[in-house]
Amino acid sequence: MRKKIVAGNWKMNKVLDEAIALTSELVNMAHDEVTNDAEIILCPPAIYLSTIQKYIENAPHFSVAAQNVSDKLSGAFTGEIAAPMLQSIGVKYVLVGHSERRQYFGETNALLAEKVNVSLAHGISPIFCCGESLDQRQNEDYIGFVKNQISESLFHLSAEQILSVIIAYEPIWAIGTGLTATSEQAQEMHAALRGHLAGKYGEEVANEISILYGGSVTAASAPELFSAPDIDGGLVGGASLKSREFTNIIKAR
Ligand SMILES: O=C(CO)COP(=O)(O)O
Questions:
Q1: Is residue 238 lining ligand 1, measured as CB closer than 6 Å?
Q2: Checking CA distances to 5, which of 38, 102, 217, 236 falls within 20 to 30 Å?
Q3: Is there a contact between 169 and 130 (Cβ–Cβ < 8 Å)?
Q4: CA–CA distance, 106 with 101 (Å, rounded to integer)
Q5: Residues 216, 236: Cα–Cα separation, whole Å
Q6: Catalytic-residue membership of 33
Q7: pLDDT digits over 29-55, tens only?
Q8: Which residue in 56, 141, 57, 49 sits closest to 95, CA to CA?
């Protein structure tokens, strides 16, 4: 059975006190809502990872993810954070290929394949983000585009390795815009991506991989999105910064 996952990507938000307050509120509120098949992943700015880990210590369904990792293992790369460093503080997940990193930091499918490799080699599961722009949705084979992101960054992996990857479909036109994909639009893509994974790794493996939806998810839109058969939870941005709203999204999963 694949896991239901709700992840909150805080992006570059919150100072320390606010990050701690949000985490404490979430742990208190979500306490009764989690069951054994679920996982809540908080993705704070890297500077707070160790602190947030302490605040979730007694909340077994919570974990943290880094928002980024270097493709290099060590050396003269000022400002970067390496997979062995994340591993050394017990981080189990990392976002790889968020569209903001692709767009503002020029991350390519080939670079992301390297980031996936270094993460897996250090026991960290990549949450691999993919998704098309509005222009691509309107003018191109948008499903083919997203499938290609997955082939180019993930299809060198073995079946055993791909089982450690979580996929997050985040259409760029829905990120931070208030324009959520409908559950039909999201389900269409998720089913296509699962089919793509099945073509490469077989149905049994594809059925074990969690595919999350991200893009303006709110407590109002989550129940319908999460009830679609191939949507296994969400990667939430803005709404993950508010404890009540995010808790209600967790409840919807
Ligand atoms: O980019 C996202 C999560 O990674 C989605 O952000 P929003 O939920 O703010 O649209």
A1: yes
A2: 102
A3: yes
A4: 7
A5: 7
A6: no
A7: 877 666 666 799 999 999 999 999 999
A8: 49
214 is in an annotated binding site: no
Domains of the chain, CATH where assigned: 4-252 (3.20.20.70)
Query: What stretches of the chain adopt beta strand conformation (E)?
Result: 4-9, 38-43, 62-66, 93-96, 125-130, 166-169, 211-214, 233-236
Residue 154 CA to residue 165 CA, distance in Å, equals 9
The response to whether residue 176 sits with its C-beta less than 6 Å from ligand 1 reads yes
- Cα separations (Å) of 233 from 9, 112, 147, 177? 13, 23, 20, 20
Do the Cβ atoms of 126 and 165 come closer than 8 Å? yes
Low-confidence ranges of the chain (pLDDT < 50): none
Query: Is 9 flagged in the annotation as binding?
Result: yes
pTM over 0.95: yes
The pair of three-digit structure tokens given for residue 52, joined into one six-digit string? 């947030």
Alpha carbon 53 to its chain centroid, in Å, reads: 18
Residue tagged active-site, from 39, 61, 98, 196? 98
**Residue 214 CB less than 6 A away from ligand 1:** yes
The phi, psi pair for 108, rounded to 5°, reads: -105, 165
